[in-house]
Amino acid sequence: MANGLVRSSALYDRVRRVIPPVEWPVFADDIDAILDLKRQQNAVILAHNYQTPEIFHCVADIVGDSLALARKAMAVEADVIVLAGVHFMAETAKLLNPEKTVLIPDLKAGCSLADSITAADIRLLRQRYPGVPVVTYVNTSAEVKAESDICCTSGNAKAVVESLGVPRVIMLPDEYLARNIAAQTHVEIIAWKGHCEVHERFTPEDIRQLREDYPGVTVLAHPECPPDVVAQADFSGSTAAMSDYVGSQKPPRVVLMTECSMSDNVAVEHPEVEFVRPCNLCPHMKRITLANIRSALEQNRHEVRIEPGISGRARLAVERMLAV
Question: Which of 17, 41, 174, 292 minimizes the number of CB atoms within 10 Å of its CB?
Answer without folding.
Answer: 17
